[in-house]
């Protein structure tokens, strides 16, 4: 596994790559990709960082695991490649956008345009084996991505963290809430959304209101 990660992140995270846990993680991921079908494609494992440089990050959305179906995962949480059927959570994200900011439901589920505007679409685990959800959890990825969240919290100000669902909400312990903005809601998955924990959170418009108040460009969602 090549650590093909944007130089701005490399600089911030340079201490991590030589740590024992990361060496073991790289070894595990290499073996998995050599012997099984895994996602996302190897050259997209670090896509979230390559679309969104450290100093350009304005918003952080935290997911859990990449999609584990064929051709879905593209290295950005909740996002899928162009032309791929939208997974249920992404459908509910787009439905909330429709009601929150009157955005037409998009044809493509690819969220690269968000990332290019400063939205870090960060999965806690960056790889997965095909049709085996959670198969690469607890192998070191969470240590790495927790370090990323803490690094952003320590070295930046006024970042907006969108924490959707119980798993993401636990990450609040890594965030200095005095200098950053944290918006929480239920997860956009059907189970949570259909119980009333997702729809109506208005996170997209609230996020843009905060950005404007801080003199930053709003996100074109």
TrEMBL record:
SMART domains in UniProt: UDG, UreE_C
Compartment(s): Cytoplasm
CDD domains, A to Z: UDG-F1-like
Active site, UniProt feature: 65
GO molecular function per UniProt: uracil DNA N-glycosylase activity
PROSITE patterns the UniProt entry points to: U_DNA_GLYCOSYLASE
SUPFAM superfamilies: Uracil-DNA glycosylase-like (SSF52141)
Membrane-traversing stretches: none
One Pfam family it belongs to: UDG
Annotated catalysed reactions: Hydrolyzes single-stranded DNA or mismatched double-stranded DNA and polynucleotides, releasing free uracil
Enzyme kind, highest EC tier: hydrolase
UniProtKB keywords: Cytoplasm, DNA damage, DNA repair, Glycosidase, Hydrolase
Enzyme nomenclature, EC number: 3.2.2.27
Xref: Gene3D superfamilies: Uracil-DNA glycosylase-like domain
InterPro entries: UDG_fam1, Ura-DNA_Glyclase_AS, Uracil-DNA_glycosylase-like, Uracil-DNA_glycosylase-like_sf
Keyword DNA damage: yes
Family according to the record: Belongs to the uracil-DNA glycosylase (UDG) superfamily. UNG family.
Function: Excises uracil residues from the DNA which can arise as a result of misincorporation of dUMP residues by DNA polymerase or due to deamination of cytosine.
Protein name (record): Uracil-DNA glycosylase
Organism: Joostella atrarenae
């Amino acid at each position: 596994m090549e650590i093909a990660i944007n130089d701005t992140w490399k600089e911030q995270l340079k201490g991590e790559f030589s740590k024992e846990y990361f060496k073991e993680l790289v070894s595990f991921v290499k073996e998995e990709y050599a012997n099984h079908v895994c996602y996302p494609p190897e050259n997209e494992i670090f896509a979230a960082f390559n679309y969104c440089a450290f100093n350009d990050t304005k918003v952080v959305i935290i997911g859990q695991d990449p999609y584990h179906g064929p051709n879905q995962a593209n290295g950005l949480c909740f996002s899928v490649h162009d032309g791929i059927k939208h997974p249920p959570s992404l459908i509910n994200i787009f439905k909330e956008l429709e009601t929150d900011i009157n955005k037409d439901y998009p044809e493509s589920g690819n969220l690269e345009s968000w990332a290019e505007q400063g939205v870090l679409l960060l999965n806690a685990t960056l790889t997965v084996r095909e049709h085996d959800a959670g198969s690469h959890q607890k192998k070191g990825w969470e240590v790495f991505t927790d370090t990323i969240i803490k690094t952003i919290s320590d070295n930046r100000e006024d970042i907006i963290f969108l924490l959707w669902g119980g798993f993401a909400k636990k990450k609040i312990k890594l965030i200095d809430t005095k200098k950053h903005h944290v918006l929480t809601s239920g997860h956009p998955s059907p189970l949570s959304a259909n119980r009333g924990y997702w729809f109506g959170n208005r996170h997209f418009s609230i996020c843009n209101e905060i950005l404007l108040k801080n003199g930053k460009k709003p996100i074109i969602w």
